[in-house]
Amino acid sequence: MRLGWTTGKYSITYRAVKTVRINGKNKTQIVKTFGSEKQICEMYGVKDAKAWAKEQVRIMNEVEKKKIPQHLILSSVPLMTLLVMNSIGLMADIFSFRIFIMN
Fold first, then answer.
1. Neighbouring C-beta atoms of residue 27, cutoff 10 Å
2. What digits encode the pLDDT tens for the residues 60-83?
3. pLDDT value at position 89?
4. How high is the pLDDT of residue 56?
5. What's the chain's Rg over C-alpha atoms?
6. For the chain, first and last CA: distance in Å?
7. φ, ψ for residue 38, nearest 5 deg
8. Within 13 Å of residue 65, how many CA atoms lie on the same side as its CB?
9. Total H helices, total E strands in the chain
10. Does the global pTM surpass 0.70?
11. Distance set, CA 10 to CA 7, 13, 21 (Å)
């Protein structure tokens, strides 16, 4: 993700955007709109709206990197090992997951 903005006649609006590939073409997708410079300064009590928005995008990128994949592909992990991992809390952070056992 990266910071994007649009400039109007009287204000600048900040957004978190990312590039996605759809049907073989790159498209810019808006992930979150933070608001105008004035709105950000008033709502969050900051003086530099652009720096604040950059920091928000950096935090969003960190969260996105730490996400656990929804599909776990396991080739040689026995089912008993998975049950033990679950019982001692090693899989507590995975809320919905599917297990594909490949031969």
1. 10
2. 898 888 775 545 544 444 555 555
3. 52
4. 93
5. 21
6. 37
7. -65, -45
8. 7
9. 3, 5
10. no
11. 8, 10, 33
| pLDDT (0 to 100) of residue 96 | 44
Q: In the Cβ-directed half-sphere of 60, how many Cα atoms lie within 13 Å?
A: 17
CA dihedral 18, 19, 22, 26 (to 10 degrees): 160
49-70 burial by CB neighbour count: b if 16+ within 10 A, else e? beebbeebbeeeeeeeeeeeee
d(CA 2, CA 16): 6
Arithmetic mean of pLDDT, 1-7: 95
Mean of the per-residue pLDDT values of the chain: 77
pLDDT at 101: 46
Phi, psi of 10 (to 5 degrees): -120, -5
